[in-house]
Specification:
Oligomer: single chain
Helix content: 40-55%
Protein name: Short-chain dehydrogenase/reductase SDR
CATH architecture: 3-Layer(aba) Sandwich
Strand content: 5-15%
CATH superfamily: NAD(P)-binding Rossmann-like Domain
Number of domains: 1
Shape: globular
Structural class: alpha/beta
Pfam families: adh_short
Keywords: Oxidoreductase
Largest sheet: 7 strands, parallel
Strand order of the largest sheet: 3-2-1-4-5-6-7
CATH class: Alpha Beta
Family: Belongs to the short-chain dehydrogenases/reductases (SDR) family.
Distance between the termini: 43 Å
InterPro entries: NAD(P)-bd_dom_sf (IPR036291), SDR_fam (IPR002347)
C-alpha cells in the first residue's frame, strides 16, 4: 500500500511554518509560482509580507507566530479554517540550530531546541490532524535533518531533536497510512541557510535552498515518505548507521574535521 502523492500544487492549500527564510522561503516561492494557495507563518512578519507580495490576489495569507506558543499556532489555524475551510498540506520547516558540544553544554539551549524542533511540529500536527482524519486526505511534511540519523559533532541538542522527528514521522506514517493521510519525513543534508552560516567547518555536498525546495516538492508530489538529499551525502550517512560503533566513530573522527 503506497501513500498518496499530489498531482499538481495549483489551488492546493498549503500552510508553511518557517516560511520567512532558507528552505521555507524557497518552498513558499516555488509553491506560489506553481499556483498553490499558501499560508505563511514564522516569527518575522516583515519577511513574510515580502513573500506574500509576490503572490496573486487572495493567493497568500500571513500569520506571524512562534512555534513554541500553542495559542499562536491555534489562532493561525483557526483563521485558515475560517478562510479556506482547511488545508491540504502542512509543511513544517521551522527549526533552530545552535552548535553545541559537551565542553560547552547549555541546558537552556537544549531545552529551547527541543521545544522548537520537536514540540513545535507536534503542536502543529495535533491541530491539523482532526480535519485531515475526518476527510481521509491531506499531507503532513516535516523537515528534520540527516543529523538525526546518528551522533555528529556540534549537534548535542540539535541531533537528538531531529532523531526524535524521525521517530515521530515513522509513527505518524504507520498510523495514518490506512487513513489516507500522507506523511513526508524530510531529511536535508547541508543547505546554505542562515542556520548553516554559523558553521565554521567545511560542509560536504552543500546545496542551495532552492535545490532543497525542489527535492521536497518533488518528493511530496511522488508520495515519498523518506525524502532525503543530496543523495550522495544522505546515502553515505544512512550507510554509517549500520556500521559497528567503533568503525562509525573512527570514520566520523577521520572525515569530520572539527
Amino acid at each position: 500500500m503506497r501513500q498518496k502523492g499530489v498531482d499538481q500544487f495549483a489551488s492546493k492549500r498549503v500552510w508553511i511554518i518557517g516560511a520567512s527564510s532558507g528552505i521555507g522561503e524557497a518552498c513558499a516561492k516555488a509553491l506560489i509560482q506553481a499556483g498553490a494557495k499558501v499560508a505563511l507563518s514564522s516569527r518575522r512578519v516583515e519577511r513574510l509580507n515580502v513573500i506574500a507580495q509576490s503572490a496573486s490576489t487572495n493567493q497568500a495569507l500571513v500569520f506571524p507566530l512562534d512555534v513554541t506558543q500553542t495559542d499562536q499556532l491555534k489562532a493561525a489555524y483557526d483563521c485558515i479554517l475560517n478562510g479556506w475551510g482547511g488545508i491540504d498540506i502542512l509543511l513544517f520547516v521551522s527549526g533552530m540550530y545552535v552548535p553545541l558540544r559537551a565542553d560547552q553544554f547549555d541546558f537552556q539551549i537544549a531545552e529551547q531546541t527541543i521545544d522548537a524542533n520537536l514540540l513545535g511540529p507536534m503542536r502543529a500536527v495535533s491541530l491539523v490532524l482532526p480535519e485531515m482524519l475526518k476527510a481521509h486526505s491531506g499531507h503532513i511534511a516535516i523537515v528534520g535533518s540527516v543529523a538525526g540519523y546518528s551522533g555528529l559533532p556540534k549537534a548535542l541538542a540539535y541531533g537528538p531533536s531531529k532523531a526524535a522527528i524521525i521517530n515521530f514521522c515513522e509513527n505518524l506514517y504507520y498510523d495514518l497510512l490506512p487513513e489516507g493521510v500522507s506523511v513526508h519525513m524530510i531529511s536535508p543534508g547541508f543547505v546554505a541557510t542562515e542556520a548553516t552560516a554559523q558553521n565554521d567547518f567545511e560542509m560536504p555536498a552543500l546545496i542551495s535552498a532552492e535545490e532543497a525546495a525542489n527535492e521536497i516538492l518533488k518528493g511530496i508530489q511522488e508520495g515519498e515518505f523518506d525524502i532525503h538529499f543530496p543523495k550522495r551525502f544522505s546515502r553515505f550517512l544512512k550507510f554509517l548507521r549500520i556500521l559497528p560503533y567503533p568503525v562509525y566513530f573512527w570514520i566520523v573522527r577521520r572525515f569530520v574535521k572539527i
